[in-house]
Structure formats: C-alpha cells, structure tokens
Write a structure and sequence with these properties.
It is a single chain. The protein has 482 residues and is an alpha+beta fold. Helix content is 32%, strand content 23%. An 8-stranded mixed beta sheet has the order 6-10-11-16-15-14-13-12. It has a 5-stranded mixed barrel with strand order 1-2-3-5-4. It has a 3-stranded antiparallel beta sheet with strand order 7-9-8, with no helix packed on it. The longest helix is centred in the N-terminal third of the chain and has 23 residues. The structure holds 4-amino-1,4-dioxobutan-2-aminium adenosine-5'-monophosphate and magnesium ion. The site of 4-amino-1,4-dioxobutan-2-aminium adenosine-5'-monophosphate has 21 residues, from strand 11, strand 15, strand 16 and helix 15. The site of 4-amino-1,4-dioxobutan-2-aminium adenosine-5'-monophosphate (4AD) has 21 residues, from strand 11, strand 15, strand 16 and helix 15.
Length: 482
C-alpha cells in the first residue's frame, strides 16, 4: 500500500522511529558532497524544517541536481534518530521525486537574508521565508483566537456589508463602488453624475467600519462581533496604516463605558496569552530575529523587553485608565513638550492626540498599556454618548507600546433627541440614517462597542515594525499588486 503523506510538524514530534514516511514540501537548502546530501525540507506546517539525508548513489545524481532551493519534492524514507545536532529526527531517503523545479538562476529567494522592502515586491513568494511563514501562521492563530474568545462568551458573529450606501460613520475617506462608464457617465439635468442609474440605484462605497450595522445586531441579539475587511482611502503612508485592513468590532447591548473597557482589556490579554500558549515556536523564531535586529541599534534605542516579555507584560498588567483631560495635562508638562521635541506641540485642551503623544504616554510616562477616555466631542464621531458636561463624549482609545492607538470605541448615544441634535450639528442628514435612528425610536437601550485593528494587533504580537509585513497582500496608496 502507498504510504500517506505526513506533515512535517507531526514528523518532527513523532516518537515512532524506523517507520516508512512520506514528506512533501519545498527545499530550503541543500548541502553535501559525493557521499551524502542534506536537504532542509519545509511544508509550511512548522517554522522548523526536517532534514532529509540522501545518498547520491541511491537517489541518483539526475534527481539531486534538480533539488535546489525552492523546488518542490516528495520524499519517501525512514524516520530515524538524527546523528547531527539541531534536530532529533531526520528522514533517511529511499526515494525522492521532484514535483516542481525552481531554476536557481531565476528563483528570487535564496538562502540568505533578504530585506523586507525586497520581499514586499515578491509578496507572492515571501510566505516561503521563515519570517513570513511564522507571521502568517500567527495571523491564522490570532484569527481563530478572536472567534474562540467571542464564541465562548456567547457573542454572535455578525456579517456586515462591505458595500455600503451610507457614509455617515465619518471614519475616513471612502472608495467608490460603481459600474458606471467612467468616460461617459449618465448625467442629471444639472450636469452631475446620475447615480440613480448606477448598479445599486444610488451612490455606494466600500465600508470604513461595520459598526453602525453592528449596533443593529446588538440591539436584537444582545452581543455580536464583526470581523472583516474595511477600506479607507486616506493618503496615510505610515507604518501603521493600510488602505484595506481587517477590523474586529464587538457591539454589546446594556454595556456602559466601563463594561466596554473591561471587555476590551480582557480581549487583548486573552489574545496575547493565546499567542504565548499556541505559537511558541514561531514566537521564539521572531523573538530571536528581533534580538539580532536590536543588537544593530545604539544601546539607548534598544527595546527593554523581548517579544515574549512584551506579551506577558500585557497579560500581567492592568491597563492604566485616565481621561483625555488628565492626559493633556501630563503631555503639556512633559519634557519633550517643554523642550519642543514633539513634531506637534501640545498646546491645550481640544487638540487631537498624535501617535507621538500616545506613544509618550505608554512608553515613557506610564510604561503600561493605557486607556484614554472622555474625549472632546469635537474630535470624535457623532454616535458617541454625550457626557453630562456637554463637552466630552464617552469614548475610549487603547494605546499600546510601539503602536499608539490599537483600539477605538465608545458608549453609543442611545437618546434619540441628543443623537439627532448632534447629527444636525455635524450636518449628517437624518433621512439617510432613518434605519439607524429606528433603533433609538423603538426599544432603545444603552450599548457600547469598540474596534480592534487586526493588523495593529499583529504588529504587536510579531514584533515586526511595518504593517505591510503582517498582511499577505498589503494595499496602500499607490500599491495594489497581486
Ligand atoms: O478608531 P477607528 O476609526 O474606529 C472605528 O472605526 C469604530 N467604528 C470602531 C468601533 O467603535 N466599532 O478604528 C478602529 C481601529 C483603530 O483603533 C486602529 O487599530 C484600526 O482600527 N485602524 C487601522 N488599522 C490599519 N490601517 C488603518 N488605516 C486604520 N485605521 C484604523
Ligand atoms: Mg480611532
């Protein structure tokens, strides 16, 4: 009978030896001499490759010459205890079939260090490197953990639309969705583009957030969460912004702002603990990579904590909670502000915080994750619940080291009259939002929610510094390859 393929992760853990096995994967390296060849074989199931020992006489020089970095092969052989250092088992090959060659003159991934910039240009091949294999396995584990966390708590996964006919959220510039002929669109009598002739009979865009539709779910099912892609057409070319990113947005009936913060803190701690428990090998690899990188930096710029220490730190420490007003006081009197070291000086109450300010609070002042609450109403969205002072709203942003804002959320305005007067102040047409206002007209209830940027979480968990490197195919201004 033909032996079935076993994944390399399972082979490396196997305690059964001297049994025949079949492994399939891509060649990472091959070295050796006329007597013996060593092939490092990886199939994506683990950061670790398995060593294949090949006798040239048995396997054949004609086969071995095609076994180069990047080639795909099927190996049949015995799983045996390894003589060499670095692995406990290896495959002593009896037969190797080359499934797909990779011309060494042309294959762009060679067994050496490539820059992240170069690897972004070959994002279709970069998952075959150790670093990106680790990142994308962790990305899977974190997605699974998101669903586990909410499912275990009785939240429902609620699917909100990607194509939206409302742009009231105001979270960012939107991408138009249209099937009209761009060269010769139908026009109204006034000479504007006639969107009533468009596919959906109205102007439509890609969504910036599933929140407003999430609220509709929460006010029926109690506790829901969304987890899907969101799109923002802002021209932000930073290491923390994508034009297409994934967001997790839980929305809960009968939660006030404190309940909301408690849930968000527990959620982030759960995700970090899940990574520590389930991504051990990949985290160990990334931690070592980061340490090597840190060694190249001047001593005063090196991170004080290793990657796993950073994750444990989030799990073990309560997040600091303070109001925006308290934060502004700290920032105004801070050394970098007095010495004019901030690019955007903090002048007074009412200004929006920049990521340099958020990072100062987290990394220098508190040295802990921070939740800022009660922001000025003028720098936040219309749906946030007005506080009794009439100036601030029940918002909360969670700030993380190395990142700044990782979560944004609020208690929602459930009082119809307050909500509609805010909308009027902000020029949001009521008739377009009738469906949203119905939840406040019929059985309105206090409720809250937040959004976690999945790639910002991924930057934190993997220790990579650029958001383009934690999503398989990044979309950023000027770039939508693959
Ligand atoms: O703060 P934001 O804009 O909040 C919302 O969209 C709300 N509707 C969330 C809610 O209350 N349900 O975005 C939420 C999070 C940010 O904290 C950040 O982590 C991430 O989404 N984010 C981005 N991530 C990558 N690229 C971008 N351009 C991002 N913009 C926001
Ligand atoms: Mg925000």
């Amino acid at each position: 009978m033909k032996t079935k393929r076993t994944k390399i992760a399972a082979l490396l853990k196997s305690t059964q030896q001297d049994v025949e096995v079949v492994a399939k994967g891509w060649v990472r390296t091959k070295r050796g001499n006329k007597q013996v060849n060593f092939i490092a074989l990886n199939d994506g199931s683990s950061i670790n490759s398995i060593q294949v020992v090949a006798d040239p006489e048995l396997i054949g020089e004609d086969v071995l010459k095609n076994i180069t970095t990047g080639a795909s092969i099927s190996v049949t052989g015995k799983l045996v205890a390894s003589q060499g250092a670095g692995q406990s088992v290896e495959i002593s090959a009896s037969q190797i079939e080359v499934l797909g060659v990779a011309d060494p003159e042309k294959y762009p991934l060679q067994p050496k260090k490539h820059s992240f910039e170069f690897l972004r240009e070959i994002a279709h091949l970069r998952p075959r490197t150790n670093t990106f294999g680790a990142v994308f396995r962790i990305r899977h584990a974190m997605s699974f953990a998101v669903h586990k966390f909410f499912n275990d708590k009785g939240f429902y996964y609620w699917h909100t639309p990607f194509v939206t006919g409302s742009d009231a959220e105001g979270a960012g510039e939107m991408f138009r969705v249209s099937t009209l002929d761009p060269i010769n669109p139908p026009l109204t009598e006034e000479g504007n583009i006639d969107y009533s002739k468009d596919f959906f009979g109205k102007e439509t865009n890609l969504t910036v957030s599933g929140q407003l539709e999430g609220e509709l779910g929460a006010l029926a099912l109690g506790e829901i969460y969304t987890f899907g892609p969101t799109f923002r057409a802002e021209n932000s070319n930073t290491t923390r912004h994508l034009s297409e990113f994934w967001m997790i947005e839980p929305e809960m009936a009968f939660y006030d702002l404190t309940d909301n913060m408690d849930l968000a803190e527990e959620f982030l701690q759960f995700l970090c603990q899940y990574a520590l428990d389930n991504c051990t090998d990949d985290l160990a690899f990334l931690e070592k990579r980061l340490l090597d990188e840190e060694k190249l930096k001047p001593a005063n710029e090196r991170s004080e904590m290793s990657l796993t220490e950073k994750l444990k730190f989030v799990v073990d420490n309560e997040f600091i909670r303070l109001t925006y007003t308290e934060a502004i006081d700290i920032l105004k009197n801070s050394k970098p502000n007095k010495k004019k070291k901030f690019q955007f000086p903090v002048e007074g109450w009412g200004t929006d915080l920049q990521s340099e300010h958020e990072r100062y609070l987290v990394e220098k002042h508190f040295k802990k994750p921070v939740i800022l609450t009660d922001y000025p109403k003028d720098i936040k969205a219309f749906y946030m619940r007005m506080n009794d002072d009439g100036n601030t709203v029940g918002a909360m942003d969670i700030l993380f080291p190395g990142i700044g804002e990782i979560v944004g959320g609020s208690q929602r305005e459930e009082r119809l009259d307050v909500l509609t007067s805010r909308m009027a102040e902000m020029n949001i047409p009521e008739e377009e939002m009738d469906w949203y206002l119905d939840t406040r007209r019929f059985g309105t209830a206090p409720h809250s929610g937040f959004g976690l940027g999945f790639e910002r979480l991924m930057i934190f968990v993997t220790g990579l510094s650029n958001i383009r490197d934690v999503i398989p195919f990044p979309r950023t201004p000027g770039s939508a390859a693959f």
